[in-house]
Amino acid sequence: MRYSALALLRGALAAHRNWTPVWRSPQPKAAYDIVIVGGGGHGLAAAYYLAKNHGVRNVAVVERGWLGGGNTGRNTTVVRSNYLYPESARLYDFSLRLFEGLSRELNFNVMLSQRGHVMLAHSRHDLETMARWVNAMYMNGIDAQLLTREEVGELAPALDLSPRARYPVIGGLRQPRAGTARHDAVAWGYARAADALGVDILQDCEVTGFTKGPGGRVTGIETRRGRIAAERVGIAAAGHSSVLARLAGFRLPVTSYALQAMVTEPLKPCLDIVVISPGTGAYVSQSDKGEIVIGGSLDLFASYAQRGSFAVLQSVVAATLALFPSFSRLRLLRQWAGIVDVVHDSSPIIGPTPVPGLYINCGWGTGGFKAIPAGGWTLAHVLATGRNHELAEPFQLARFTTGRLIDEAPAAGIAH
Amino acid sequence: MMQLPCPWCGMRDESEFLCGGTTHISRPDLSASDPVWGEYLFFRDNPKGVHLERWRHAYGCGGWFNLARHTVTHEVLAAYGIAEPPPALHASP
Q1: Is residue B93 in a domain?
Q2: Which CATH architecture has domain A117-180+256-342?
């Protein structure tokens, strides 16, 4: 069913009893051409682009829990491409450009709001680093502006800009095309569009092992719902990548950490940009519902528990109130955490694994949501053709042997 | 908030400590190949279960020690000296 104003009107006349499920819930088939492990944004996007770009429709996405129940539904919904190195800039800006056309492409409103993203400078050193950063972004063809304190104040009047502030603001770096998108809608939109092209989405279907044939080549997966054969298998499991890699017999340069986020009770519109302050350790935006959405540092010890530590929550709230003293009376409504797959250079891994026929998309760490379209696109490319997409070529596992790292730690935002 | 057992100071709040990551990793010989160095520097087990890790009582006595901690429940199963081998554990996986 195609969504439109007319469909909505027709629904209204039928007391909205005409809506069909957004995707099917089929029984697993015995075999598929390609199986993707992980029904979050990256896995669903990969399935969609396999069908759309490569005409491979005999595809299944298997998900341990429910669609988008991992990091896709647990992030702070920020999309941006303000990265330093050319390799990253190309990849993340490709993603942002796909986001710009995504609602139309998927016929599903992902509520992209390019409200702009401002990183605050609290010292001369911050400002000098940002000047270099802005120049790098220009060189990479990405929109960027260096802001004065006054210009930051015009964009975010609620910020404490007084010279006596605990962390005085002396300038900022803005990416005007950055913003937010509805995270659930990205997962659901890709799921619906992939399903319409024939992809089977299998929820509640945990992978318990991989089957292998001659030469150690992967021939399929073992799941709680039985064995499923596949020509090729892709993994897009974020914080659980190491668990799946262990089942397949190899290790990854990944550590899993909890990254928490929180929202306050809703209030009238008062903040129409995304503000990040690496110096204080918080980033803040206001959702379309009016909640103040707050994120911060990782809980800096290995964890697979999808809950954050109170010690980190406290420091993130303190940082937020140092920036926005007027938020001090707001009550927190919800707080949660996702398990993120952090690698040493804060850059992703998209490509083949040591197991023939098995490919992986992981290592996005604290910033995977913004990369969903590009991560899906490039994983689909390598799954369909057996060759890396040119955007993914620098982001291979081999770089941890050659030493050709792409260190994007500052662009990852808060110092992790 | 987790509480962690510093061998010298006893149970203290998590916010007094810094985690130093996986423990019992020994540096290969300087003549080791690139793949061996890569494994040593970057590749980790990253277990969903018991993890042997180093911690420092940074805002306390400053000492390093080892923990066996479960990465799902965050339960501390053992604390032992930084140079000691891991104790035998009888924990649920």
Answers
A1: no
A2: 2-Layer Sandwich (3.30)
